[in-house]
Structure formats: C-alpha cells, structure tokens
Amino acid sequence: MKTIDILTIGEPLMEFAEVERSGERLYLPGHGGDVSNTAVAAARQGARAAIFTALGADSFGTDFLKLWDREQIDRSSVIVRREGRTGAYFISYGEDGHVFSYARAGSAASLVRTDELPFRQIEAAHILHASGISQAISESCADAVFAAIRHARESETIVSYDTNLRLRLWPLDRARAIIHGAVALSDIALPGLDDAQQLTGLERPEDICDFYRRLGCEIVALTMGKAGTMVAAGARREVIPARPVQPVDATGAGDTFDGAFLAEWLIGRDPFAAAAYANAAAALSTLGKGAVAPMPRRAETEAFVRA
Prior knowledge:
25% strand, alpha/beta, UDP-N-acetylmuramoyl-L-alanine:D-glutamate ligase
C-alpha cells in the first residue's frame, strides 16, 4: 500500500543568508539542501512527503527535525548520528546574483550506507526522488542512491531524479557517469538547462530532452529559467512559459519546481499541466531571500495560476 506520495533522499544543509542591517552584513539562519527543499515544496502543495537522510546530533540537526515536523514531513527514518554533524552553507549576494560557500565535508548525511536505507518506506512511496547532489557527496551515498532506485523499481515506486550538478563535489567525467546511470533507471528526469548542457555536451533544449528520453525516462521536464520549461513525454514536446515576476533571490527555485511538479503530477498525471503549475510555484519562491521561507503553499500557488 502506498502511504507516502514523495520520499526524498539526500543531504539537508543549514542555510545562512546574507542581509544588511544598519550598515552591517549579517547572516540569518534558514534551511536548505536540495532534497529537503523539494520535500518542503511538495508538502506545501499538499503532498504527503517524507525524507530520508542523516543529521548530526547538533543544533542544526534539531532545527531540521523541527522544520520537518512543522511542515508535516515524515522524518521517521532519519538517522541522527551522535558523532556526526549537519552541513551548512552561506549565501552572499552581489551584482551577478547569489554566491554559495559550503561547510559540508564529512557531514552526517555523507556517511549514509546502503544498509541504512529505509527499504519499507521506499516500497510505501508513490515517488522516490533523488539528485546528483545526493550521489556526489560520497561514494557510499552514490551506491546507496543506486540501491534505493533499484529497490524502488522492484517495488513499483516511480523514480524522479534531478541532475543538479555541483562540480565542487566531483569531476565532470565522474558526474556524467553516475548521473547518466541514475537517469537511465529513472522514470522522471528534472534537469536544469545549464547543468544538462555540461553533462550531455549538447546545447539545444530539444536535443537534451531527446538525450534523456533515449536513456529511458518517460518524462523530461527541462527547466530553462526565464525561457520556461521544456517538457517531453510520449510523442509530445512543448515549452511551458515561465511566470514573470521581479525576483529577489533564486535560491531554491529549482527545488520548489521539483516539489510542486511532482505533487501536481501525482494529482493529474499530466506533466505539461504539472510544469505550468510548478513554474508558478518556482516564480513565487524567488520573491524572498533564502530557500525555504519564500516557498508558496498551494492556495497561494493556485491563486497565482488563476491571475
């Protein structure tokens, strides 16, 4: 019986976003990490979301447990390591947008092993969602995600994968091999254009969608920023326009898209309608600073779609 809509697997990161107050530069705490963001975004659209990861037995880890409880995200399989620590990142802002600095090496999440996976939760989920970052943080995590994906396929759980390339974490050749291998086992691919161009060596969105479809994905939703989202499914390929806003901070917009897309797709199984809905949610998420705080809830997203 499927009792979970979306189960995400990966690494949460405590967020510190730069603000200026009275001429001083301060960093305000928040929450980040792509799959945690995706779980929150999905939950705010009404999906039954769950997350699997490992946290340190520290104040950052406690903050995440409280966040997931507030957002009604099932965190029953989350591991808390007494000797571990929770990773963090800092967002600075400049003329070219946001810049990230990380303190994540050796995080509790990066120590996850295949034998720690929540196999019963995977069986209970409609969708298992992972990302390139989920596999980039360590070799054991790369292996664990592959094991989770294979178990999902055996359990009739749909697999969703965001390519989310971070070259600070691994070299491009290794990233290509691992990510292409994971996408080939996935049902839904959620790449971003810049990442996909580096990973595939292709430039045209149409060619990138075709590449991922040939790997075996039934649905590809290629996010292209202001140019919208190209969706390929079945014999149809279409660009879904972006929703114009005056953005403040794009941190977490792609994760918001993922969570909203998956939540909406589960309702109607229409990837084109789901992309239109997710574009709206992602646009709203750029109207404030940080990843989680500006993420909209369903009522807000639906009102924006109707506007």
